[in-house]
Amino acid sequence: MCRGNPPGRPAAKAPTGTANRLEQRKNKNRTAHALRVQCQVAHFCIYQAAERARQASLRVAELLRTLHPAAWLVVGTALVQHRRSRAAKRGDLREIRSQVFTDDFHIAIVTTAALPWMTGTAINPLLRAAYLSKAGRSVTLAVPWLHPREQALVFPGRLRFADPQAQERHIRLWLAERGGVRADFRLRFYPASSPPTQTRPRTSRAALFLESFSPAPFTVATSLILPLGDASGRLNALPARDVTGCFEAGECDVCVLEEPEHLNWYHSGANWRHRFKLVIGVVHTNYLYYARMYAGAATAAVLKRLNEWMCGAYCDRVIKLSGTIQPLPRAVVCNVHGVRSEFLEIGRRAARSHFPPRRAGAYFLGKVLWAKGHRLLIDYLALQQSLGQPPTHVDVYGGGEDLAEVEVEAAARELRLSFFPPTDHSGATLRRYKVFINPSQSEVLSTTTAEALAMGKFVVVQRHPSNDFFMQFRNTLPYDTPEEFLLQAATNLLGAFLEPSWNLLGEPEPLSAEERRALSWEGATDRFLEAVSNCTLSDVLPTLGDHATRWVHATVQKGGPVGDRLRRASGAGPVWKQSWLAQEKWRAAPPTEIVEASILATPPGMAPVRASAAPPRR
């Protein structure tokens, strides 16, 4: 017997809750169906693309067979190697993904500078290694070892080290006293070289290398350190006899290349991506900005392509500290740097009124170069003068190749700029300032701006990709135009020397807990580890273009005497002659012996020298 509704009686309505559940189920089914359709379409598109690629490969193969059998053999071998390399990297990524999930992996950091040279590529990688070790990670930091004769080019004062052990003691002492952290990580040295003592052209560290692309060959600049031989095989004490036998099994997990383009310009060793399961490059320097200013658009175009090739061939993933860096393969933007704890402590004490009132006006700290913002600062203050506004006084701290020119132009324009020698940013001299001004557009991520924020100061910076990270802080005073810069300066500094009311905005806001964490190295370490974790989840397999670039680059760098001549022509300076490093006796030699032999192989004066650098464009 049918149990349907009697004729003429409407169907009973389901309860409201049941109706909602039915509707949700229908929506869920519709969503799942839509996702299935999208997946099918995506799979079809991928299949079509793969089929087109296969057909194109067959056409190319047929053409090569027609031209010459040897061409087909070479290309076929390269394609087979490419497929094997991708399969091996896929297995490495699968393994490192599980290791990262369980926090059981080793991190090897390779950088281009070391203390006591107080530069960003010496300090930031050191602090990264220390805080990663403090967080429980196993870390090895590899830094360059220079011959004592070349240490005078980059180390301040009369600091010299006869052996790596003495320099390591200095580094660890600085880390404990100034870095505020004691960490147990391995520190190793690889052989490197810097230009001869008589070659000291007047220009910046970054721009000096860029000029090597000019037709006239000459040495690389001072203040630029380049590896000798295979730096990838020098991270431990084992002999670098082949690719698979250079590292212990526990040290071949994650490799961090600080300034990957710089490290690989003259890299003659094995591919980093073959030695390590995951290779991450951290880009520090805006080389394109220096190229445009010092060498012109043509050099900038060449350098842009070269940097893309180096990062694509040798890095699985690239981390750009800010968006001002050129587009690079497989790159993400993330600030993985922090400030030392002493700066945060100064800011904490200043917020509690442990320091006297800050009434010293504004200051600008950094190396005095036209490219570092001093040109913009002079132009802004000259505009203020032409508009008839009250003058702004700025104290400029620092030294550099352009200091004399900057002083002369500031005096000629009668600007209120006072110049002082370099000083410690955390010292008592700079604590009395309330406002830090940084008009630079060449920085990737200004360390001095972050330090000023940590100390509880106002910072006046441009709305620029290099300053995006600082826009989240309440004490950041951004500007877009020169007129807005002058307005910020007038609002904060017009009354700096008029008692009693000298600042219309009052005191800077104390840093919140979130702001302190964002500026600290603990926060930077968290962001770095998150970036590493994300890298293991994304597709970072090498492309055919990556392998082609690597093959061409390795062929040039390992070309024996021909490679030496090419390096010399491109401005490699003291590292141009490396063919002797291929001898068996040097493969297991310590860095001290290699740099000693390098001095003998390329004595000062052998490298081509250019008299002076091109003046900056103004």
TrEMBL record:
Q: SUPFAM superfamilies, alphabetically?
A: UDP-Glycosyltransferase/glycogen phosphorylase (SSF53756)
Q: Which GO terms describe its molecular function?
A: digalactosyldiacylglycerol synthase activity
- Matching InterPro entries: DGDG1/2 (IPR044525), Glyco_trans_1 (IPR001296)
Q: Where does the record place it?
A: Membrane; Plastid, Chloroplast
Q: What does the record list as GO biological process?
A: galactolipid biosynthetic process
Kindly list the GO CC terms recorded for this protein.
chloroplast outer membrane
For the Glycosyl transferase family domain, which residue ranges apply? 362-465
Sorted alphabetically, the keyword list is: Chloroplast, Glycosyltransferase, Membrane, Plastid, Transferase
Pfam families for the chain: Glycos_transf_1
* Enzyme class, first EC level, given as a word: transferase
Which reactions appear under catalytic activity for this entry? a 1,2-diacyl-3-O-(beta-D-galactosyl)-sn-glycerol + UDP-alpha-D-galactose = a 1,2-diacyl-3-O-[alpha-D-galactosyl-(1->6)-beta-D-galactosyl]-sn-glycerol + UDP + H(+)
Family as reported in the entry's similarity comment: Belongs to the glycosyltransferase group 1 family. Glycosyltransferase 4 subfamily.
PANTHER family (UniProt xref): DIGALACTOSYLDIACYLGLYCEROL SYNTHASE 2, CHLOROPLASTIC
Name of this protein: digalactosyldiacylglycerol synthase
Q: What is the organism field in this record?
A: Emiliania huxleyi (strain CCMP1516)
- Source taxonomy: Eukaryota, Haptista, Haptophyta, Prymnesiophyceae, Isochrysidales
